[in-house]
Specification:
Radius of gyration: 22 Å
CATH topology: Neuraminidase
Helix content: under 10%
Number of domains: 1
Distance between the termini: 26 Å
Oligomer: single chain
Shape: globular
Low-confidence stretches: 1-15, 20-36, 125-140
Number of helices: 6
CATH class: Mainly Beta
CATH superfamily: TolB, C-terminal domain
Mean pLDDT: 88
CATH architecture: 6 Propeller
Strand content: 35-45%
Length: 410
């Protein structure tokens, strides 16, 4: 489902306008008042600057929310922000490499591949041809000329891991690595097993589903997984819950050493422009770690639980979650600083810490996990709901296409 946000493009970065999309039948469609059990609406507001930033970069943004069970695609649509939703079961980690997109869900990892030729079907090939679009065969890996959509991700692989609480993921030298939070380890996919353990902190003595330190984020440096974040450094099951305020750590995987301590629920470590960035979620901040001193230096504090980080040139795109003051989030600085928190994605300048735009989610979407920039794709889609489209879209090796009649080739 899609939520276009009708918002005057002349508005400045601080001006907002709301839009709403309600899942399920409306009162008119159901012949009466909407049932009390209807899901909450998918509402959002945004600054005019946010879609402009995406337009200037020729890119879009993918966001996961396990709480709402959605993948959200943020894309510019003629100067306004289009928020496009796809349903998944507790989606969390995202990884992008070339034409591949992986999503970590409740009990499995789903991999989608970009098939640009299918964009003609998303747009309606006949209508586009009548309107003058060029629907001749596109070059491999490109959307047809005249297409509105410029990427279409179709399901290609599914790997069942079991409930290992997949958190962050990354393709490393073509191989998909993921944080296996339940087993307190880094892992990769296996042809025969639920997963292959690849690294575990030295302070976790056994491989078992105990979520000892709440290992959650990973950073790739020089083509290798180099840093991870955790909410504690004990090997006892769920021991991280005892000190959420300042028990978080950053670990150097190659050195098997803690390089930063005293953090409040750190997430989303990233190596970017020769600095180690991360989010101190419990304080709602974005900053970097001085690897010489181990000191974390925030550049901005934002109005939510910061989790999910990606970069677009000099900008950081930061996910924010509302988080309720429950046992999991009690006692952290953010909850003490702000009585009400915000859910959304903020664009922050890395040099100044200035907020240059945002999109806020309301009602249905309250917590965000992953934020990833889809570079070079202005208006993508992902298909996991249309069995007819999936069933009639075939991807063949290039050498096999010479045997396919011309009218079937796209």
């Amino acid at each position: 489902m899609t939520e276009p946000n009708p918002y005057a493009s002349s508005a400045g970065p601080g001006r907002e306008r709301a839009a709403e999309e309600r899942p399920g039948a409306t009162a008119a469609e159901s012949g009466g008042d909407a049932a009390a059990s209807d899901p909450p609406p998918l509402r959002s507001i945004h600054t005019a600057s946010f879609p402009q930033l995406l337009a200037e970069a020729g890119s879009s943004v993918l966001v996961t929310t396990y709480q709402a069970g959605k993948l959200v695609i943020l894309r510019n649509d003629g100067g306004v922000l289009n928020t496009h939703f796809r349903n998944f079961l507790k989606p969390m980690g995202l990884a992008i490499e070339g034409r591949r997109l992986a999503i970590g869900a409740s009990v499995d990892i789903l991999e989608f591949h970009n098939v640009p030729a299918v964009c003609r079907r998303l747009d309606g090939a006949e209508n586009q041809r009548d309107a003058g679009g060029d629907w001749s065969s596109a070059a491999a890996g490109e959307a047809p000329r005249g297409a509105r959509h410029d990427a279409c991700f179709l399901p290609r692989w599914s790997h069942t891991t079991g409930n290992v609480q997949i958190h962050e993921m990354a393709y490393v030298d073509g191989e998909l690595w993921f944080v296996n939070t339940a087993f307190s380890c880094l892992a990769t996919r296996s042809d025969d097993n639920s997963f292959t353990p690849r690294w575990r902190p030295w302070f976790v003595p056994q491989l078992m589903p105990g979520d000892c330190c709440h290992l959650n984020g990973l950073a790739v440096r020089d083509g290798r997984v180099r840093y991870v974040t955790a909410l504690g450094d004990s090997g006892e099951p769920e021991s991280w819950r005892r000190n959420k305020r300042d028990g978080g750590v950053v670990i150097d995987v190659e050195a098997n050493a803690i390089v930063a301590r005293g953090l409040s629920m750190p997430h989303s470590p990233r190596w970017y422009r020769n600095r180690l960035w991360l989010l101190e979620s419990g304080d709602g901040s974005l900053g970097s770690v001085d690897l010489t001193t181990g000191r974390y230096e925030p550049i901005v504090r934002l109005p939510g639980f910061t989790r999910g980080l990606s970069f677009l040139g000099p900008l950081a795109l930061v996910g924010l979650s509302q988080v309720r003051e429950t046992a999991v989030f009690s006692g952290i600085p953010l909850v003490e600083r702000l009585a009400e928190r915000t859910c959304g994605v903020w664009a922050v300048h890395l040099e100044t810490g200035q907020s240059l735009g945002f999109v806020k989610f309301q009602d249905a979407v309250q917590e965000i996990f992953a934020v990833e920039v889809l570079r070079g794709s202005r208006y993508p889609d992902l298909i996991n709901h249309d069995l007819d489209l999936i069933g009639k879209s075939y991807v063949l090796p290039q050498e096999a296409l010479c045997d396919v009649p011309g009218e079937f080739r796209r």
